Amino acid sequence: VKAALDNWASNYFPPGVSYQVGYDPSEVINATLDEIILTMISALLLVVLITYLFLQDWRATLIPSIAIPVALLGTFPFMLALGYSINILTMFGLILVIGSLCDDAIVVVENSQALMEREGLSPKEAALKSMTQITGAVIATTLVTVACYVPLAFYGGMVGEIYVQFAVTMCISLCLSTVVALTLSPVMCAYLLKKPDGRVPFVFRPFNAFLNLMRAIYLFFVRIFVKQGILTLLIFVGVGWVIWHFYGKTPS
User: Fold this and answer.
1) pTM summary value
2) Do residues 174 and 142 touch, judged by C-beta distance below 8 A?
3) Kind and range of the H or E element at 163?
4) Angle at 111 between CA 108 and CA 114, to 5 degrees
5) Nearest-CA neighbor of 62 among 175, 197, 185, 202?
6) What 3-state DSSP class applies to 91?
7) CA 23 to centroid of chain Cα atoms
8) Where is 106: in which H helix or E strand?
9) What is the mean pLDDT of each run of 10 residues along the chain (252 residues)?
10) pLDDT value at position 199?
11) How far apart are CA 20 and CA 146, in angstroms?
């Protein structure tokens, strides 16, 4: 359009006539997409770093890290088939879902590592046994997460037209991450993982100490709530009342 306007201005406009663009949304959209790409790369790196911080093994970190780009790239053919474009909402959906795309693969890796530690299995044996134990759980966790996003696709009117792409993009990515976790991740576990030697690198020891402290505090309160059922029920009712009370008071 801009090239055509320039051509008209130079060849067809009478002397003294010029034009000025009153509103050009493409500038904002292009700038936003540039920022989205930067945000996506940042989110991917952040997820990989946090995963490495908890798994503390580059081999184990590599497996869920590969699941993320596979699920992201696999989403685009489905977007093409559905007639969706690369726009602000579809890209925002992919950014939002990045942190969830590695969850299933992490479950596979951690369970395989645990089997190698507890039962002394080889990586291949651990990967095979791991999938017999957690396949149902991996599928179930994905369905629970998808159930949070699917309702967005059923909004009516203009809002629904906008958010259906947002919701469907995320759901497709999540389902693909499950397929990756059930197929690619176990194979990578069998060939990449090594039996843990039990040694913790010095750099991770402060983090592990802090994590163990948080776990101890959490378990302390869980034991109290489990033993004191009436107290737990009263707290639950109190929280429910607070939510109901402020829901009615907060302006819509």
Assistant:
1) 0.74
2) yes
3) helix 157-192
4) 150
5) 185
6) helix
7) 35
8) helix 103-119
9) 91 90 84 82 85 86 89 93 87 85 89 90 92 93 90 83 87 94 93 82 89 96 90 94 89 78
10) 80
11) 47
- Strand, coil or helix: 22: coil
pLDDT for the residue 173: 94
The whole-number pLDDT of residue 57 equals 84
Measured in residues, the chain has a length of 252
**What are the angstrom distances between the C-alpha of 136 and each of 108, 110, 116, 139?**
12, 16, 21, 5
Separation CA 37–CA 91 (nearest Å): 8
Residue 101: name the closest of 157, 19, 170, 34 by CA. 170
What the block records as the tokens of 195 is 């039996």
Nearest to residue 91, comparing CAs of 33, 41, 151?
Answer: 33
Distances, alpha carbon 109 to alpha carbons 60, 92, 204, 225, 236, in Å = 6, 28, 19, 31, 35
Residue type, 189: C
Give me the sign of the Cα torsion angle 236, 240, 243, 249: negative
Structure-token match 């999540």, residue found: 174
Structure token digits, residue 92: 């925002």
230 alpha carbon, distance to own chain's centre:
37
Beta strand segments in 71-168, E: none
Q: How far apart, in whole angstroms, are the C-alpha atoms of residue 6 and residue 14? A: 14
- Residue 119 token pair: 């039962």
